[in-house]
Amino acid sequence: MNDTGTAPLRIVVADDEMLVRTALRAILGAQDGMEVTGEAATGAEAVSTVRALRPDVVLMDVRMPELDGIRATEHLLETMGEDAPRILVVTTFENDSYVYDALRAGAAGFLLKRSAAEELVAAVRLVARGDCLLFPAAVRSLAARYAPHHRGRSLRTRLTGREAQVLRLMAHGLTNAEIADRMAVGAATVKTHVAAVLAKLGARDRTQAVITAYESGFVTPGPH
Q1: CA 31, CA 42: separation in Å to the nearest integer?
Q2: Where does the HTH luxR-type domain start and stop, copy by copy (predicted)?
């Protein structure tokens, strides 16, 4: 228990470089309310460690031996269902097909390894509470480069006018509060629309909804 009496966030760090794992453990372990409960040096180790320890958040490198972070992410989300942890990809290069594939697989977002310690801590807290870590410009860049290779993914449903508007604003990286301001509606209304969009798209979270929007051609990657 931490000073607030709540259980700490349990975190697993998966990276094939020991120095990276050590640095991440040191940063996160020094935070109140966070505990690094395990480490993994390969994707296969990440899967077994996560299944054994049931953490809240996994920091997942995308390039690892045996099983890369993308396949590890897919496996964990598919096999653990609602018990799966939130997965945050930690990568060296943001404009990388591995990052895009990790987002397609269900990662809640990505963070660069050169990010400052406070950015790392904030990102872990963000995804732990169920939000997604998206950088609009970076996601648009990734979508422009890689979404055309996955064309054919369909929205599979008809969105209402309001839901379509919400999805477009989500794709441009707006938060619920920002969407509410843009649409001149209450935050609760936006939350309802977001939930409806996720349900209709069969998306696990906002990230997957945004990826579907780009790959279906519903949203095109460009300035908004």
Answers
A1: 25
A2: 152-217
Look-up: residue for tokens 């870590």? 133
For residues 57 and 110, state if they share a domain: yes
- The pTM assigned to this predicted structure is 0.78
Q: Note down the domain range covering 129.
A: 9-133
Residue 119's CB is within 10 A of a number of other CB atoms, namely 13
For 164-201, the three-class secondary structure string (H helix, E strand, C coil) is HHHHHHHHCCCCHHHHHHHHCCCHHHHHHHHHHHHHHH
The answer on 126 and 46 residing in a single domain is yes
- Residues 33, 99: one domain? yes
AA letter at 50: V
> Both 82 and 187 in a single domain?
no
11 forms beta bridges with 36, 57
Pairing mode of beta strands 86-91, 9-14: unpaired
Predicted confidence (pLDDT) at residue 4 exceeds the cutoff of 80: no
d(CA 199, CA 53): 29
Q: CATH number for the domain including 190?
A: 1.10.10.10
Which of helix, strand or coil describes residue 220? coil
- Span 58-75, mean pLDDT? 91
Q: Cα angle vertex 181, ends 178, 186, to 5°?
A: 105
| Residue 63: half-sphere exposure toward Cβ, Cα within 13 Å | 10
Mean pLDDT of the chain: 86
pLDDT at 151 over 80: no
Q: What is the mean pLDDT of residues 90-115?
A: 82
Residue 191 has pLDDT above 70, yes or no: yes
Task: Please tell me whether residue 11 adopts helix, strand or coil conformation.
Answer: strand
